[in-house]
């Protein structure tokens, strides 16, 4: 057990892409749990693209991280002290710990895990990202056997879940990923029917031609988590009555108006192709999480659903790992092991 | 009966806003119905914003009008000759006649109307526009008592239907219209709780402030049929889980990429507010049309649903009436009486 409390704070709001100077490593006295609270020592921390949005001072679905505040995020660890019923000391537990070595949380905001659960799986394939893919695909993607699905960031924890679930339901699945190696992983590890390296294409038109080759029957479901050039490439290829679950737009985090145009073109596509575009924030859907665990947990345990984790070592490595992830530097689910 | 066949043809594709020179009045020999066909003498012709889209050579949900081809559109008239079973000569009938004095249609593409039906009502309040409002509101708007709805082009045949139906279901309804007179009509004839003259506002920000004043609880349903500045004003006011049935974007017909930016901003709004944006082309939904007539027909007959028609006189007046309509020159449903 570490006796030092350390955390990564937001030092300032990023201008465009975050840089290391936007974060600071702080230390301080060990926090004390009050009545009904627990103290967790964090062993694994999740890094996710949505955290970029929380760094901006924009009205959004959640409060921005305050300057000087601890970066938000889910962690897993051991309960060091408990003043909450139903949360025993020594238990493996998860909650919104933030980027910190320890966290005090209310007992009711903590989920106690079965011993033997791989701690990091709770942050990825069986956590928020995997659940996002499962829930968004079934509710807004509405896949049908024989259709074609395109997913960007396809080796990431959301995209790889979406692709594997869709393929199991009889869809043709097309991965878009950055680099040859990720494309190979998309095909070999996650079973995508085709994988396209967006870095090999200079512009949206060239990327579109490659996707069109891989999707001879057009696209019925576009799992949208990047925005930008990929969206521009995909929209004209959408089939009538296509669906676009919109769960992120990482290419546009920090974008200023005028960076990209094409709203009229996108709106026209939604209209003329009768697309269904639905914003998805997984926090609205937690009541379905037990159902997800029940359905997908055994498939992960049986090896029917594959997953990849990238692990950075040490809390102090979190900012660089996060910055790199936003640029596509990770292959799978980005974890920090403390 | 007129013995001359006349039609309005597309002389050339418009560059931006259509001008009179984009159309030509042609005459020719009276068309002859073949086996299974009928000849209709058109008495009333519908002008609708979607026709602007058909003038462009763009891939869309329907074929563009060919250069030299007759402008497309729905008409009502009398059956002069019939070689189709179930369509008696002399009957009042409607179909896609195009902008023409007469049309030959297959019998199965013609709908015979009850005698006594006001011919023009079939083109507006009880035709495609009214049906669009009814179907789009129930399927994609999903209105709930106590919510707030905003509709642009609110005195038009779609917007006025949407507003009246929503108000009857207990929503607060806010009209956006061009000019004081239309705002007065929106309130007095169609019962909107508030009406905002978009012409009185220099920019989207000023318009937004006026809408925000009228919608203190935010906007749950935005009936989208204009795009452009109104969309820009409305998006930030949308409530979480808001719905945007998208049935037109008249401000953007003919827009070239780069005219307007804001796709990143719009996409971010869809994501963070978990909006549901659904393209609506009414041709997909005709199987619900009898249900619409059954529900709404009696309400129109009883005066519970009001409607307004603007009537231009003579086929040769159609291009000018259409050009004016696209600029908001009409108040209600634009008809041409031949």
Automatic annotation (TrEMBL), chains A, B:
Residues 8-32 are annotated as: Disordered. GO terms for molecular function: oxidoreductase activity. Keywords: Oxidoreductase. Residues 16-336 form the Enoyl reductase (ER) domain. It comes from the Bacteria. Its EC number is 1.-.-.-. InterPro entries: ADH-like_C, ADH_N_2, ER, GroES-like_sf, MDR_fam, NAD(P)-bd_dom_sf. The keyword Transcription regulation does not apply. It holds the Pfam family ADH_zinc_N. It is an enzyme of class 1 (oxidoreductase). This is NADP-dependent oxidoreductase. It comes from Litorisediminicola beolgyonensis.
């Amino acid at each position: 057990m570490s006796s030092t409390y350390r955390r990564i704070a937001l030092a300032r709001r990023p201008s465009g892409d975050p840089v290391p100077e936007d974060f600071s490593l702080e230390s301080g006295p060990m926090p004390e749990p009050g009545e009904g609270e627990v103290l967790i020592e964090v062993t694994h921390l999740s890094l996710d693209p949505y955290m970029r949005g929380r760094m901006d001072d924009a009205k959004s679905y959640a409060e921005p991280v305050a300057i000087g505040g601890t970066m938000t995020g889910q962690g897993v660890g051991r309960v060091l002290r408990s003043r909450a019923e139903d949360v025993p000391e020594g238990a493996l537990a998860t909650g919104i710990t933030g980027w910190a070595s320890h966290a005090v949380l209310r007992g009711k905001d903590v989920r106690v895990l079965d011993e033997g659960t791989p701690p990091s799986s709770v942050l990825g394939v069986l956590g928020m990202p995997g659940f996002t893919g499962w829930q968004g695909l079934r509710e807004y993607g509405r896949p049908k056997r024989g259709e074609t699905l395109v997913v960007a960031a396809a080796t990431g924890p959301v995209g790889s879940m979406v692709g594997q679930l869709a393929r199991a339901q009889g869809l043709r699945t097309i991965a878009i990923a950055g680099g040859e190696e990720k494309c190979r992983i998309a095909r070999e590890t996650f079973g995508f029917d085709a994988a396209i390296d967006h870095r090999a294409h200079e512009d949206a038109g060239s990327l579109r031609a490659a996707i069109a080759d891989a999707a001879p029957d057009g696209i019925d479901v576009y799992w949208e988590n990047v925005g930008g050039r990929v969206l521009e490439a995909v929209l004209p290829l959408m089939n009538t009555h296509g669906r676009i679950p919109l769960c992120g737009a990482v290419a546009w985090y920090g974008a200023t108006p005028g960076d990209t145009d094409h709203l009229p073109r996108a709106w026209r596509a939604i209209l003329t192709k009768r697309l269904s575009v639905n914003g998805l924030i997984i926090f609205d859907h937690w009541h379905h999480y037990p159902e997800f665990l029940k359905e997908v947990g055994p498939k992960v345990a049986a090896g029917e659903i594959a997953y990849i984790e990238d692990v950075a070592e040490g809390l102090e490595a979190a900012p660089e790992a996060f910055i790199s992830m936003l640029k596509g530097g990770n292959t799978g689910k980005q974890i920090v092991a403390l």
